[in-house]
Amino acid sequence: MKLLTTPLLIILFLTISCTNNQEKNITNAQSSSYFDYSNSEDQITGGIKMIPIETPKGTFNVWTKRMGNNPKMRLLLLHGGPGATHEIFENFDGYLPHEQIEYIYYDQLESYYSDQPNDSSLWTIEHFVEEVEQVRKALNLTNDNFYLLGQSWGGILAMEYALKYQDNLKGLIISNMMASVPEYNKYAEEVLGPQIPEEVLKEIKEFEANGDFGNPRYAELVQQHYYTRHVLRKPLEEWPEFINRTFKHLNPNIYIYMQGYSEFGITGNASLKGWDVSDRLGELKIPTLMLGGKYDTMDPKYMEWMSTQVQKGRSVTTNGSHISQYDDAEGYFSGLIEFIKDVNEGNFN
């Protein structure tokens, strides 16, 4: 083989350099477009939009914030609680912008950044399903681009929304939530509870039997011996600021009314205690991802089973717990991003 002459080497070098520069320019253009809020109605607010929600008790505003700009992949985030905040998702900022996925923070009614009418007649699944639908319309989300992610209580809401309005969705992600509260309670009682030291579990059960959920000692025991194992697998002093801020902003009124006093099962007379849609999963025909955690408060095997019950399901089990987007971010976001892109590109199976 003859060696390339100097002029040919120069031409080859210039060709490669031009190609690399073109690729960089394309990437930069994509990034610029993704972060470009100009000529949009929410430019002046930096993506924040207060959306009026019509209810039988009047009109109230809920807080949303758009992150990025991609008309093909738009992800609405439903936080847990009930009564928590969008802040539980703040580390999505470290992963989704790089993938050009638009995502929308949203505080449901009664949550910190939205109106808080403190009216328990609105604290129903039916209300929140219709609230999500009103948010969808206000944000112009369509079945060409609308992905819905619900975590924990948000997973209940996402399932209920999809069972009524799946024709509006392109993809559904259920994060860290089983389709049956009785099965969730059973898992907490029979599998997770016995992992707690016997004397600690006995004390917890005494508080619950007496209905003494407001006792600071009860909260201390559950946090130290349950939350650090199954909610976020780190010592409490190592929990990140945005997670602590979420708990600080939690609305206890709606949380206790619908969920109970802790994540250790749904306790007392909480309104979600008997919720169960496991026999309706087969109605879901849209691409659906069940995203669970090995150490979650939710049974990961049950969540894998859920993926076999929907018509187009996929399951990812991380090495994390209930807040697995933080304690196994790599596993969580790789599964989430792959799902959204596969659906977007028509490669989901």
List strands and helices in order, with pairings.
Elements: H1 6-34, E1 48-55, E2 58-67, E3 74-78, E4 102-107, H2 125-138, E5 146-151, H3 153-165, E6 171-175, H4 181-192, H5 198-209, H6 216-230, H7 241-248, H8 252-258, E7 287-293, H9 300-309, E8 312-318, H10 324-327, H11 329-344
Parallel strand pairs: 3-4, 3-5, 5-6, 6-7, 7-8
Antiparallel strand pairs: 1-2, 2-4
Helix pairs in contact: 2-3, 5-6
Give me some keywords for this one.
349 residues; alpha/beta; eight-stranded mixed β-sheet; 11 helices; 8 strands; disordered N terminus
What does the model show?
The chain is 40% helix and 15% strand. With 349 residues, the chain is an alpha/beta fold. An eight-stranded mixed β-sheet has the order 1-2-4-3-5-6-7-8, sandwiched between helices. Helix 9 (300-309) links the parallel strand 7 (287-293) and strand 8 (312-318). The longest helix is centred in the first third of the chain and has 29 residues, at 6-34. Mean pLDDT is 91; it is low at 1-5, 8-19 and 21-27.
